[in-house]
Amino acid sequence: MEKFFKSWVNFDEMITPKIIVVIYWILMAITVLGSFVTMFTGNFVSFLFGVVSLIFGIIGVRVGCELVILSFNIYKTLKKISDNQNKNIIDNLNENQGE
């Protein structure tokens, strides 16, 4: 429990990628429902608008959520690279001090 609390306070583990999945499904439901309401409550133009909003809405929600998750994946990869470089620097310093 202490490790979980420490990682929570120090922002070592991100919760936003987990929340994005829930937000994604909520936005998908809103997009689909809104598009169907638009398609079936009006004339032919509103039907076409509903179809277009359904297609582009689904794609837009997906791309937007993927971009947010991608930014967190980039951060995670950069953190691994940084930690690895710091470890290598410390190892080199320790080797040089031993000589």
Topology at a glance:
Elements: H1 2-9, H2 16-40, H3 44-98
Description of the structure:
By secondary structure, the chain is mainly α. It has helices at residues 2-9, 16-40, 44-98. Helix 2 (16-40) runs antiparallel to helix 3 (44-98). The longest helix is centred in the C-terminal third of the chain and has 55 residues, at 44-98. The two termini are 42 Å apart.
Quick structural gist:
The chain is mainly α and 99 residues long. The protein has one domain (2-98).
Key traits:
99 residues; mainly alpha; 0% strand
Largest β sheet strand count, sense and barrel closure: none
Number of helical elements: 3
Shape: elongated
Strand content: under 5%
Mean pLDDT: 87
Please mark out the parts with pLDDT under 50 across 5 or more consecutive residues, or reply none.
Answer: none
What structural class do you assign from the helix and strand content? mainly alpha
Task: List the domain count as a whole number.
Answer: 1
Task: Compute the number of strand runs.
Answer: 0
Quaternary: single chain
Radius of gyration: 23 Å
- What is the share of helical residues? over 70%
Element order: H for helix, E for strand: HHH
C-alpha end-to-end distance? 42 Å
